[in-house]
Design brief:
By secondary structure, the chain is α+β, with helices and mostly antiparallel strands. Helix content is 27%, strand content 34%. A hairpin with a 6-residue loop joins strand 2 (28-33) and strand 3 (40-45). The two termini are 17 Å apart.
């Protein structure tokens, strides 16, 4: 299943509002505020790569007070635990 980690920079003090908006998206698997260069990291998963890109481009990046994003698309099959 296509998955991406999205690192988000936002306006100062808007982290909680943005996290709340991200949690409303059905494609959001996990979201956390973080210390460092970025303010928020979100794990986004969708049924197709096109839908994943659409979610990030038209929903995540359009949230009010999001300044910038860095998207890292997961390489399927690498790093998974063997059963």
């Amino acid at each position: 299943m296509p998955t991406a980690y999205v690192l988000i920079n936002c306006d100062l003090g808007s982290e909680e509002d943005i996290i709340s908006e991200l949690k409303k998206l059905p494609e959001t698997v996990e979201v956390s505020g973080v210390y460092g260069v970025y303010d928020i990291v979100a794990k986004i998963r969708s049924d197709t790569m096109d839908r994943l890109r659409e979610t990030i481009t038209w929903h995540v990046r359009k949230i009010d007070k999001v300044r910038s994003t860095l998207t890292m698309i997961v390489i399927e099959g690498q790093g998974e635990k063997k059963k």
